[in-house]
TrEMBL record:
Transmembrane segments: 63-93, 181-200, 207-226, 295-317, 392-412, 424-442
UniProt keyword list: Membrane, Signal, Transmembrane, Transmembrane helix, Transport
Record organism: Triticum turgidum subsp. durum
PANTHER family, A to Z: METAL-NICOTIANAMINE TRANSPORTER YSL2, OLIGOPEPTIDE TRANSPORTER YGL114W-RELATED
Protein name per its UniProtKB record: Uncharacterized protein
């Protein structure tokens, strides 16, 4: 298991390395978790840093904090997506239960409403991500062509208003140049190793399956990194699910299940690691940290994770009855992913009725919205929703969008009352919400392992 993780994890570090400047500086993506970490790190280096850090660690409102860091457009886009999906589409599709999809299947089955949620969500994400990937590729090619011909490209008008702090951060971030050829050569070399090693580990995963996964990884990785930078929500598992269906169908009845699960793991890991690295680069950009040091640190952490994660799993596997449907450690996702692989072997015809048509419509809608934004006058662009942000509530749920909008409301109200103080303290408060909740996860996990239940629980149900 550790060998498999080592074979697929390091490529993710090189996946988006040439695009780090575009994602962090040019697109100015917030990466809320990375920003929150940077604010806390910077806070430790101020006279009041330790005092502020202790105070703000007491909060545990992750999504409210993320909403305070993200722009109003991102938060309102998630709310629009939540209303569109949970308020309109899912209730309408649910009325077709027994007609479009079987009435006696569990909610977690891809042949139920969950199939519509998953595929329509990924279609929106893929449409938005692919559009921006092609757009960025075109801009990069145009820039390289202009540089080759020694043409001077005029700077955008808003670059003159960049603050001194941002200019300093940009200069430090780009000063330590990491050659693109190193990323390309490393990606190619590690890909060749994976193409050789993985089929030896899993005979059902043919070498050309691995080649296809590594060819698709840059596009999928960019889509996920862009979406994570907007909303702080990684969709790597959804990309993995789509890969699972593709490789399971490709593998056929004999090899499809194992091939699908292996392909899912490869794509998910490549996409996830590259998004995590962009989070770290955002933190480094805000804290004036060396990009090379961040890359080395991420590589060391990846090695540790590839060893610690399997060891932890084996510890749990031997200590507890993992996977028993009637036991405490049910491991439901293991069953879900296996069922999805079986569904992939049976073919996409087993998906719910109209699922592919609706997903294609979502993909087209995503591309169309981006075209409208890019070709609309500047003053109207702020009213065009972001498809990537809209897609997240499709699968995660509407409560996430509401929490994000609460964060926007807090920032809006605070700026109306005390603008100068809000500008200074909003990042710190938001960081406290996010990091405080994250810190609590560790003792919460220990309490769960000890089977300690909370003294009181609250649940809201519809009235009769």
């Amino acid at each position: 298991m550790a060998g498999f993780l080592l074979a697929i994890s390091f490529v993710g570090l090189l996946n988006l390395l040439p695009l780090r400047k575009a994602l962090v500086i040019d697109y100015k993506l917030t990466y809320p978790s990375g920003t929150a970490t940077a604010v806390l790190i910077n806070g430790f280096h101020t006279p009041q840093g330790e005092k502020n850090a202790k105070f703000f660690f007491d909060f545990s409102l992750t999504y409210v904090g993320a909403g305070m860091i993200c722009s109003h457009l991102v938060n309102l886009s998630t709310l629009f997506g939540a209303v569109l999906s949970w308020g309109i589409m899912w209730p309408l599709i649910s009325k077709q239960k027994g007609i479009w999809y079987p009435a006696n299947v569990p909610e977690s089955s891809m042949t139920s409403l969950f199939g519509y949620k998953s595929f329509m969500c990924v279609a929106l994400i893929m449409g938005d991500g692919l559009y921006h990937f092609i757009k960025l590729t075109g801009i990069t090619a145009k820039s390289l062509h202009a540089q080759y011909n020694r043409k001077h490209v005029k700077r955008a008008a808003n670059e003159d208003t960049v603050s001194f702090d941002d200019l300093q951060r940009n200069e430090v971030f780009t000063r330590e140049y990491i050659p693109n050829w190193l990323a390309y050569a490393g990606y190619a070399s590690l890909s060749i190793i994976a193409v050789i090693v993985i089929p030896i580990m899993f005979q059902q995963a043919k070498w050309y399956y691995v080649v296809v996964a590594y060819v698709l990884a840059p596009v999928l990785g960019f889509s996920n990194a862009y979406g994570t930078g907007l909303t702080d929500m990684s969709m790597s598992y959804n990309y993995g699910k789509i890969a699972l269906f593709i490789f399971a169908a490709w593998g056929g009845k004999d090899d499809g299940v194992i091939a699908g699960l292996v392909g899912c793991a490869i794509v998910k890991q490549l996409v996830q690691v590259s998004a995590d690295l962009m989070h770290d680069y955002k933190t480094g950009h805000l804290t004036l940290t060396s990009p090379r040091s961040l890359l080395v640190g991420q590589a060391i952490g990846t090695v540790m994770g590839c060893i610690i994660a399997p060891s932890t799993f084996l510890l749990f596997y031997k200590a507890f009855d993992i996977g028993n449907p009637d036991g405490y450690w049910k491991a439901p996702y293991a069953l879900i992913y296996r069922n999805m692989a079986i569904l992939g072997v049976e073919g996409f015809s087993a998906l719910p009725k109209r699922c592919l048509e609706l997903s294609a419509s979502c993909f087209a809608f995503s591309v169309l919205v981006n075209l409208v934004r890019d070709f609309s006058p500047q003053k109207y662009r702020k009213y065009v929703p972001l498809p990537m942000a809209m897609a997240v509530p499709f699968l995660v749920g509407a409560n996430f969008a509401i929490d994000m909008c609460v964060g926007s409301l807090v920032v809006f109200s605070w700026h109306k009352m005390k603008k100068k103080k809000a500008k200074l303290l909003v990042p710190a408060v938001a960081s406290g919400f996010i990091c405080g909740d994250g810190i609590w996860m560790f003792p919460s996990s220990l309490l769960s392992l000890a089977k300690v239940n909370p003294p009181i629980c609250m649940k809201f149900t519809p009235g009769s």
